[in-house]
Amino acid sequence: MSSDKGNITIDNNVIATIAGISAMESYGIVGMASKNAADGFFELLKFENLTKGIYVDTEHERINIQLHVIIEYGIRISTVAQNVMDRVRFNVESLTGLEVDTIEVLVEGIRMD
User: Fold this and answer.
1) Which residues, 6 or more positions from 84, have their beta carbon under 8 angstroms from its beta carbon?
2) Pairwise CA distance, residues 103 & 2, whole Å
3) 5, pLDDT greater than 90
4) Are strands 2-3 and 99-111 parallel, antiparallel or unpaired?
5) Is the C-alpha dihedral spanning 21, 26, 30, 32 positive or negative?
6) pTM strictly above 0.70
7) Cα(47)–Cα(74) distance, rounded to whole angstroms?
8) pLDDT tens figures, 71-102
């Protein structure tokens, strides 16, 4: 972002952290998922590594976010995904001042307790 007083650069990891914390606040989300390259399985990430399950692409001050999540069994997937998209969009836009173009929620697993 540019202004008459200078430039502001927001790293994609900052946006990913905001998106990850926002997603984790959503009802029905157990955690973020990361693909294990060795065996092709997805694993549940701990809170300090949650950005590994998030991919952020920024072009022309527009943000595209892809979230790989694991949800709780017994909850409607479409409702959880919509809640995540709404919360992530609101928090990223209000904290960065940038417009979120797309948010994709990819459900990589369901955890049964």
Assistant:
1) 22, 23, 26, 29, 67, 69, 103, 105
2) 25
3) no
4) unpaired
5) negative
6) yes
7) 23
8) 999 999 999 999 999 999 999 999 998 899 99
